[in-house]
Design goal:
Helix content is 28%, strand content 25%. The chain contains two helices and three strands; from the N terminus they run E-E-H-H-E. A three-stranded antiparallel sheet has the order 2-1-3, with no helix packed on it.
């Protein structure tokens, strides 16, 4: 599965069951502040994450 924020690929994970966006973020130890800084955002909206796969 691929996790995107808007059109930015955040991570790819391989799972054998259904998984939520929150579970993927926890699995990859997502650092919100680091992501915001790297992308030059002021903040992020968790509704803009999507899982494809």
């Amino acid at each position: 599965m691929k996790l995107y924020y808007e059109d930015i690929l955040v991570a790819e994970v391989l799972v054998n069951h259904s998984i939520t966006i929150e579970e993927v973020l926890n699995l990859i130890d997502f650092d919100k502040n680091k992501f915001i800084e790297e992308q030059g955002f002021e903040d992020i909206d968790h509704n803009d994450f999507k899982l494809i796969g």
